[in-house]
Design a protein that fits this description.
The chain is α/β, with parallel strands linked by helices and about 210 residues long. It is built from 10 helices and 7 strands. It has a 7-stranded mixed beta sheet, with helices on both faces. It is globular.
Length: about 210
């Protein structure tokens, strides 16, 4: 058995979920600026996440779900995932974003499991609070190591694909590390760099 782990925002999905969510509230530019700094490794991920989510306070959950159902998927994502699965890979998604987005997208793409965060709501209105599986800089690496132990998959049979600084921790536990349209900090830690926005390029790496 082999394991492929994808980041979600700007990897499987073309953009950042939280930027789309901030737009109706008028905080798009402010949130995008924080996102950019966090992905470049210039801000602590936990602080950047909680600061951005606080700005979403008051957004109706029904609007969140509507936005998340219509996020743009990266070109070639479905073909890449189908190709990996046909080659014997279990495919999972780790996201510092939100389950409102990852779960429907991963279902459409045929991904085996998604691990992400939960936007807290009170009577259907976002409170500005967040919790979940992927809150910290180390979260993806920690979850990857646990999955490898659970599934009895070693580092040599693991491929990880991401774009930002919060993907660094999972890069430690994979022999094939793909920086996809990535920030310089992640490219430095990668074994392969894909600058073409087409996930089918991943299949060329494993063949």
């Amino acid at each position: 058995m082999k394991l492929a782990v994808f980041d979600f925002d700007s990897t499987l999905m073309d953009g950042e979920t939280i930027d789309f969510l901030a737009k109706p509230l008028g905080f798009e530019k402010e949130v995008a600026s924080i996102t950019q700094k966090a992905m470049e490794g210039k801000l602590d991920f936990f602080e950047a996440l909680t600061t951005r989510v606080a700005l979403l306070k008051g957004l109706p959950k029904v609007e969140v779900d509507k936005i998340c159902q219509n996020l743009p998927i990266i070109n070639g994502a479905k073909e890449a995932i189908d190709g990996l699965k046909s080659r014997g890979y279990r495919v999972v998604c780790f996201s510092g974003g939100f389950r409102n987005a990852t779960s429907p997208a991963c279902k459409r793409l045929g991904i085996d499991a998604d691990f992400s965060n939960i936007l807290h709501n009170d009577n259907g209105i976002l409170t500005g609070k967040v919790g979940g599986d992927m809150m910290f800089n180390f979260s993806k690496g920690d979850m990857l190591k646990r999955l490898q132990n659970l599934l009895d998959i070693n580092q040599e049979n693991t491929i990880v694909v991401g774009d930002g600084a919060n993907d660094l921790s999972m890069f430690k536990y994979a022999s094939t590390r793909v920086a996809f349209c990535a920030k310089p900090i992640l490219k430095e830690a990668s074994t392969h760099i894909v600058d073409k926005k087409d996930l089918r390029e991943i299949l060329k790496i494993i063949d």
